[in-house]
Amino acid sequence: MAQQLTRNQSLVLDVLTHAEGPLSAYTILDKLRDHGFRAPLQVYRALDKLLEFGMIHRLESMNSFVACSHPDHHHHDHGVTAFAICEDCGQVTEMHDAGIEERLSVLAGREHFKTEKTTIEIRGHCQNCTSG
Amino acid sequence: MAQQLTRNQSLVLDVLTHAEGPLSAYTILDKLRDHGFRAPLQVYRALDKLLEFGMIHRLESMNSFVACSHPDHHHHDHGVTAFAICEDCGQVTEMHDAGIEERLSVLAGREHFKTEKTTIEIRGHCQNCTSG
DNA sequence: ATGCCACACGTTATAGCATAACGCAATTGA
DNA sequence: TCAATTGCGTTATGCTATAACGTGTGGCAT
Questions:
Q1: Tens of pLDDT along A105-114?
Q2: Measured from the CB, is B24 under 7 Å from any atom of strand D?
Q3: What's the CATH superfamily of B78-132?
Q4: pLDDT-derived band of residue A71, with 50, 70 and 90 as boundaries?
Q5: Sequence-separated (6 or more) residues with CB below 8 Å from residue A62
Q6: How many CB atoms lie within 10 A of CB B67?
Q7: What's the CATH fold of domain B1-69?
Q8: Which sequence spans correspond to the domains of chain A?
Q9: Which bases in strand C are touched by protein, i.e. have an atom under 7 Å from a CB?
Q10: Which of A29, A30, B39, B57 is 20 to 30 A (C-alpha) from B92?
């Protein structure tokens, strides 16, 4: 069941997995120069696949990427994800909630809108950075 | 109460108001060349102000901007907005729902996260483009 | 009036994000 | 074997956004 990754895909996933927070494609590129990466496309192609496999997420509001925090069950099997993004430390928390999905589904249905992909991103300050 | 706009701000808002769907900053720039616009910053500065005034919205998932569909009450007085974006025709529907706000508030609270700004964008297909 | 300040503006340059288009190599499967 | 698919590498290009500088104007306290 576990997706067999190519070398490039593994390298990119590895960088994201070990990162503190979200990374831009170009930051990933820089981190992989020693491994032979030379061009943005090498990163973007790997990112596209990893997104497709559900192993990483794209944060639209900051043009960057994070490893999925639920590495166990891939392949889209978790529904809508909401991200809490701390603007101070950059940390990202992944959240799931059936109530939200339900509510969004109702909203979309009311407009006869067929949902393909839902993005929920909350910018703000995490507990650590608030208390400090 | 109505915000007094500068010439540039008015021009940009006007373009967005009369547009079919969301526009990128550079598309706006092109549409305003005849009015003396020559550089991206002229557009971005106006956009920043209009966002601040709550007169337009930024769609993070497509790096573009739309006029707010509730021109009456500006100044942030409407809460979280969810956008339904049709990938076929580009049309954007603005939706508000107290239930969603409530649910997101609970989620954030659970993580002791202080929310500053919330982005909800649903990509998919609108009624027209689905039926056809 | 003078001087100061805040703000919008215009311009040039640059930084950051993403994809088009080409060709090559390896794999798969009819 | 041959064609189709997929990943890869490279070059070039396009799109999105901001930095940094200077100008002009209007308000306003002195």
A1: 999 999 999 9
A2: yes
A3: Ferric-uptake regulator, C-terminal dimerisarion domain (3.30.1490.190)
A4: low
A5: A22, A85
A6: 22
A7: Arc Repressor Mutant, subunit A (1.10.10)
A8: 1-70, 79-132
A9: 8-13, 16-21
A10: B39
